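Colleagues,

For the teaching module next term, I've prepared a clean inverse folding example: a structure given as tokens, and then the sequence designed for it. I'd like students to try predicting residues themselves before seeing the answer, so please don't circulate the second half yet.
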């Protein structure tokens, strides 16, 4: 059974792929990191890995 963070991470990841901001491979890498114990939020990891800018996360959250 998926936990809530997996579902939320998957949703933001899917949305960012649809928006053309990230690739599916990048999303999968972040979800894998979270599954291995990285307790940061999806957006935090994506920004730290320089996949996206913080502005992209803000735009997603505003939708």
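(Answer key — instructors only)
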């Amino acid at each position: 059974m998926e936990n809530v963070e997996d579902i939320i991470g998957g949703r933001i990841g899917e949305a960012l792929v649809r928006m053309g901001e990230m690739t599916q491979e990048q999303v999968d890498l972040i979800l894998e990191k979270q599954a291995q114990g990285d307790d940061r939020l999806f957006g935090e990891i994506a920004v730290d890995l320089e996949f996206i800018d913080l502005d992209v996360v803000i735009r997603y959250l505003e939708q």
